[in-house]
Amino acid sequence: MTKKQRYETILSYFRKEMPEADTELEFGSIFQLLVAVVLSAQCTDKRINQVTPELFRQYPDAKAMAQAEVDEVLEYIKSVSYPNSKAEHLVKLARMLVERHNGEVPADMNQLLDLPGVGRKTANVIQSVAFGKSTMAVDTHVFRVSHRLGLVSAKADNPLKVERELVKNIPVEDIPRAHHWLLLHGRYVCTSRRPHCERCGLNYVCPSASHYLSASRDPVANHSANLSSSDDGNGSQPA
Q1: Residue 98 pLDDT more than 90?
Q2: Pick from 43, 95, 203, 210: most CB atoms within 10 A?
Q3: Residues labelled catalytic
């Protein structure tokens, strides 16, 4: 199978199975989306959706959060990963939005990257979800699934290289959804320690499936996987 055929097969599958794929983060504005994405670094969307309703009630926009102290914001996000640094980033981010952008989230990549706590992955999510741009955010799920499915080469050994290879091969109109396709596939099917290849609709084209299917039929390997799977998470990392 050529790389072009592989991409066409996999993208056709996702178009059929997940035509309306979107972020699982809950938000009511572009600012709230930005806050949620910053908070989601190395944390699950489920956890973020548990803390943001009260946070957004108290600080619904950048102007409100810009007036807060770091300790005040921290009270609402204590249960997320790295709460101290994230609280500091959010307050500084909000103040910068007010000072430079009249409280609005910019669509420009460089202006997004200037914001505290915003890396390339976060900026790509904002550009794609909020502004409909064809950008590819690469988190741990996208990185893992892209390699397992053979969409990227072994030389794509960091998020930026994976992003560039995916964008090069995925049609522009599919790129915004493709991020969610790969992310959700990694979160629920192609999980880190124990991928569910037996129920994956792409196992017949996946170069990694035979290895994992063979391991699942091996009682010794399967027992070892069971022992290590209890802490298998679905968080993401900043890019």
Answers
A1: yes
A2: 43
A3: 121, 139
